[in-house]
Amino acid sequence: MPPIKVKNGRGPGGRATGSIAVKPGEGRGRGRPLTRIQKEKQQVILEAALEVFSVYGFRGSTIDQIAEVAGMSKPNLLYYFPKKEDIHRRLIRTLLDNWLAPLRQIDEDGDPVPEIRSYIRRKIEMSRDYPRESRLFANEMLQGAPHIIDMIELDLKNLVNEKARVLSGWMDAGKIVRTDPYHLIFSIWATTQHYADFDVQVRAVLGRDRGGEGRFEDAAAYLEKLFMQGLIPRK
């Protein structure tokens, strides 16, 4: 397999990517606070693992690959994370929590049209800024979500139920067209995350003229119009 290089948390095209937060007490040293150096080491490992997992998936990745990308020895890496599963679990659980943040921000007391429009735009921005994380999450779903099935069946399900009730309330009030709120949420996920999960395909089809960073703004404008035309009640 060709080596992967990651510098300063930058993904394809040199775009800055988000970092995985290291929480006190996680990894080695559980039960006592991590030192600054330990946190930095864990951060380097998690960034390297994100790059490796997003390319090769969980099954195709190895501790040796992650250690090489992290620029440290395998024994040093294993001091912080004894198993590959530990690294992957940390990444995917943190990712799911971050991924749900835009959905949590939908305000029941807000105007539904701007709220939904903002949600679509935030999801597109996440596809632009966190493509590796999106692909890692997609790979986890394709494998049956073995590391986060409990979070999906509890945290994710409860949050979606909550926002589905918000959408239904707006529909009952005649503020947006009645439709299935769950499938509305699924549709927004599918159309926005496509631009990260199928980034290569999107850029190849659009070509040089339209395949640059502007494609995300074009996508946001298109999807906002698409969903708003179907949701704004006709007078």
UniProtKB/TrEMBL annotation:
Q: Where is this region: Disordered?
A: 1-33
- Annotated ranges, domain HTH tetR-type: 39-99
The Gene Ontology biological process terms listed for this entry are:
negative regulation of DNA-templated transcription
The superkingdom listed in its UniProt entry is Bacteria
Which residues form the DNA-binding region? 62-81
- GO molecular function terms attached to this record: DNA-binding transcription factor activity; transcription cis-regulatory region binding
Keywords associated with the record: DNA-binding
Can you name this protein? TetR family transcriptional regulator
- List the source organism: Devosia pacifica
